[in-house]
Amino acid sequence: MENFIYVDSCESTQELLKEQLKHEGCNELTVGCEHQTKGHGRGTNVWEDSVGTLCFSMSINAHEKITFTALEISLLIQQFFSSKGKEIKVKWPNDLISSDGKKCGGVLVQNSGAHYLAGIGLNLFQDNETFGGVYDSSFPIEKKSWIKDLNDFIRAHRYQDTAKLTADWLKSCCHVNCEVRIFEGEQEVVGTFIGLGPHGEACIRNTEGIQHLFNGSLRLV
């Protein structure tokens, strides 16, 4: 049975993957598309499609510590581009950051019954002021080939050791020992990002001690 499905257009690869998993007897299915019209971001955010954007979703096994899964997938994407000589960074909890400091991608992991779904949006290149791209300028791309290569790399390089994953993630993070703000609802915590806790949470040192934050949006001060 084919475990890679590619369509010209869909509202959301996450939703299409959920539908396919109802009918397919496969735990490792990937759905990609040429154009996505209503991609899911974190919270109520929408991931916008463009000519240089890759959109795909994967059914995966969660990391041995489930809360590390999005951290792991974002790190593996960073490593994929590092293997091609292109350096990007990871940002807690699930973002990818371009060389000019802009968000160029993100990972959304959801539980859907018996499956965990990793939705990935990634700008190979982008030309607006808000978002960045992995590459500085546009070039002809075949989205299907890029998505297949990323999918194969991620599946082949999954981490078994949480300690190793944590160490590698921190080496690739853009804000270790930096002053940050983390927003979650009406809560705001400001301090120095000093690392990851045992459940993948952000550890922030400030005048009140070390704060452990499990959710939120992080910004550099």
Layout of secondary structure:
Blueprint: E1 4-10, H1 13-21, E2 30-36, E3 39-40, E4 46-47, E5 53-60, H2 69-82, E6 89-91, E7 95-97, E8 103-112, E9 115-123, H3 143-156, H4 162-171, E10 179-184, E11 187-196, E12 202-206, E13 209-213, E14 217-220
Parallel strand pairs: 1-2
Antiparallel strand pairs: 2-5, 3-4, 5-9, 6-7, 7-8, 8-9, 10-11, 10-14, 11-12, 12-13
CATH domain fold name of the largest domain: BirA Bifunctional Protein, domain 2
Low-confidence stretches: none
Average pLDDT, to the nearest integer? 93
Q: Number of domains in the coordinates?
A: 2
- How much of the residues is beta strand, in percent? 35-45%
Number of helices: 4
Integer-rounded radius of gyration: 17 Å
Oligomer: single chain
> What fraction, in percent, of the residue positions are helical?
10-25%
Q: What is the H/E order?
A: EHEEEEHEEEEHHEEEEE
Word description of this protein:
This protein has about 220 residues and is α+β, with helices and mostly antiparallel strands. It has two domains: about 5-170, Bira Bifunctional Protein, Domain 2 (BirA Bifunctional Protein, domain 2), CATH 3.30.930; about 180-220, SH3 type barrels. It is about 20% helix and about 35% strand. The chain is built from four helices and 14 strands. Strands 1-2-5-9-8-7-6 form a seven-stranded mixed β-sheet, with helices on both faces. Strands 13-12-11-10-14 form a five-stranded antiparallel β-sheet, with no helix packed on it. Strands 3-4 form a two-stranded antiparallel sheet. Strand 11 and strand 12 form a beta hairpin. The radius of gyration is 17 Å and the shape is globular. It starts with a strand and ends with a strand. The mean pLDDT is about 95.
